[in-house]
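Structure in, sequence out. Go:
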């Protein structure tokens, strides 16, 4: 028995009394300190469960200096973020890990240059414990901004600040974009395709550059007319496929650097009376359900674990965030490249 009156909220002292340890020991454990033995920690957790103790979050934040809030910063217009299924799956994975950690997601969008000061002020204002950033361009100031303010951050995709910078100063999670593109183009070559074109993503993004490099690894002498820059959208795929057919009407295969652009390419090929895959084979990149199963024919594509990368980004971020005011967090750099694989369906 703790001696509490009925209905009174249990306190740290109650937990300490029930578990037979000091109040300071209970406080250290609840506030994330690793300096508590496993046996004592188990007794305290049992007492917490039996008493129904809930930490006072306002008081706890004074000790931990934690807000239990994570900023997710996306450099994309709002109308794309909520239409492109890639972002939906990425955010789903991030949110799964945040829920597991008991943290809130704060979504910040950067649509134009004027948004950077606003977002920077928010990130530096002590409102969040860390930031997850993705869809960055090569000249994006965000990596330098979070670096200067000392905010724990993890990037989705390799940030590239200059041609010499391969993102080595930052923790990031990326897919094997180059290897996945290589596998896709090799498959087209083994099928006997001879005029293989590619629709790239925007070439100020590392993923697009890496996927183009994978294409060139297999076809180093490909004609420039067979390479058209897109923007990872359905409309971008339509426009790029129109341009490719005007330049190279005899092409017999297309590797598109995203599923949405591949869908746009399929639409144009159908309008021009080209049979897929008989006349032109098509391969995408992402493997976004249900999109890939509902194309006609179903889309051959490169699979990347988008949700899994989101969860991993969040997990790495929590390792970097100090657990208490006495802890510095993990400052080591992690560069994680997740595997990709080719999923064969009907378009190639």
């Amino acid at each position: 028995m703790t001696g509490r009156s009925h209905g009174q909220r249990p306190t740290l002292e109650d937990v300490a009394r029930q578990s037979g340890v000091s109040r300071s020991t209970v406080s250290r454990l609840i506030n994330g300190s690793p300096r508590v033995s496993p046996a004592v920690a188990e007794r305290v957790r049992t007492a917490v469960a039996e008493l129904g103790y809930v930490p006072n979050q306002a008081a706890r934040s004074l000790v931990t200096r934690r807000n239990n809030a994570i900023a997710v910063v996306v450099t994309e217009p709002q109308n794309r973020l909520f239409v492109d299924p890639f972002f939906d799956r990425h955010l789903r994975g991030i949110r799964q890990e945040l829920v597991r950690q008991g943290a809130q997601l704060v979504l910040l969008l950067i649509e134009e240059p004027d948004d950077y000061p606003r977002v920077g002020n928010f990130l530096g204002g002590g409102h969040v414990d860390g930031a997850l950033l993705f869809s960055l361009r090569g000249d994006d100031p965000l990596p330098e901004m979070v670096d200067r303010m000392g905010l724990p951050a993890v990037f989705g995709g390799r940030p590239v600040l200059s041609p010499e910078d391969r993102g080595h100063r930052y923790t990031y999670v990326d897919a094997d974009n180059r290897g996945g593109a290589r596998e896709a183009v090799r498959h087209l070559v083994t099928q006997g395709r001879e005029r293989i074109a590619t629709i790239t993503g925007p070439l100020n993004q590392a993923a697009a550059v890496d996927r183009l490099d994978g294409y060139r690894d297999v076809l180093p002498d490909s004609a420039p007319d067979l390479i058209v820059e897109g923007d990872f959208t359905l409309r971008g795929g339509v426009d790029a496929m129109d341009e490719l057919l005007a330049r190279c009407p005899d092409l017999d295969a297309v590797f598109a650097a995203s599923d949405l652009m591949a869908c746009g390419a399929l639409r144009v090929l159908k309008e021009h009376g080209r049979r897929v895959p008989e006349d032109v084979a098509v391969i995408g990149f992402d493997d976004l359900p249900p999109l890939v199963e509902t194309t006609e024919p179903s889309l051959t594509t490169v699979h990347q674990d988008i949700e899994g990368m989101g969860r991993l980004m969040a997990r790495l971020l929590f390792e970097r965030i100090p657990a208490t005011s006495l802890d510095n967090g993990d400052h080591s750099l992690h560069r994680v490249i997740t595997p990709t694989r080719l999923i064969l369906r009907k378009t190639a």
